[in-house]
């Protein structure tokens, strides 16, 4: 083999198309070990991506702010998923009279604990607690002995009461003189109580979980509808696209906030009712983006070849065109989710959101506005919402960098 042939045999391709191998810093010597796809060596163990997805993962990790924001957000969300084991007015476990009870899972009658009323056991009742202590029962409580709707029966002051660690000697003297709970007998309220005597930290944990679950469900369902609508518009075009575009223009011209307030005031409030109302408008966010991707991709040669081979429209749309559209769509999902959470918070703040008594960050902000003498309410709600939205925005920026082909950090 002459030198010209040898040079040609190791020359990289002139054009790098989709799925082309990255030849950067590749050793073509005979003794070199075969190199795998770029970035696979640094992926988590047991996970293998294609070269392009490996590069995206590396670009995402290169954005340190977004990468650590994702981990912080996931840790907070996972913790709140187990809210019943962290903040609850029912014990996690009771061993009494040779039997084991799990009140956090099962509702037991008070007859199981020596009473004769036959109602559900109230584990915060001093009589029942004294009975369990006298019979040497083993009781394991969660770290916070309040649920989101539990009222503190022994506060140090009128509601809303201060966080327990903020109580001063003057506060304790005032409580003793006016018949409130003595400082040595108080149950700990880390962030105080709201204007109805409910523990703020417990409501914060449950409210964080509720907001994230609501935002996730709304984002997923609205994205599915929006992607399907945009795919139909962009792929078929013509009158289908024209009529659909006119409908969307009319629908988006409706004042969304006013209509939401009207419907929310007429219908009985609820999680799924509010979800359905917001879904009426949120699905249009991705339609234009997906439509543009399908309009661009339907004239590609491989799409025309698939049509010539008799491949059905459904297969072409969702197997060949949809992956190209999802690259742009994925970058918008964190921002759509943050918008969904903010919409729920705003409606709760105005009083048109979830039913009264639900653990809501917006309702906590509303209490902070109504009780300026209790700054722990407004500050707690503000910093929680700010932290949640900031983490989602930082994650969205990192996802955008990861899917941007013009940016590379490796």
Low-pLDDT runs: 1-41
- Highest CATH level, the class of the largest domain: Mainly Alpha
Secondary structure tally, helices: 16
Kindly give the count of domains.
Answer: 2
Shape type = elongated
**CATH architecture descriptor of the largest domain:** Orthogonal Bundle
List the helices and strands and how they pair.
Layout: H1 3-9, H2 51-62, H3 64-81, H4 83-86, E1 93-96, E2 99-101, H5 126-134, E3 138-140, H6 169-177, H7 200-236, H8 238-252, H9 256-266, H10 271-282, H11 287-297, H12 301-308, H13 313-330, H14 333-350, H15 361-370, H16 375-403
Antiparallel strand pairs: 1-2, 1-3
Q: Could you name the key traits of this structure?
A:
410 residues; 56% helix; 2 domains; MetI-like fold; mainly alpha
Notes on the protein architecture:
The chain has 410 residues and is mainly alpha-helical. It folds into two domains: 51-86 and 152-410, MetI-like fold (Orthogonal Bundle); 89-141, no CATH class. Helices cover 56% and strands 2% of the residues. It is built from 16 helices and three strands. A hairpin with a 2-residue loop joins strand 1 (93-96) and strand 2. The radius of gyration is 29 Å and the shape is elongated.
Short description:
56% of the residues lie in helices and 2% in strands.
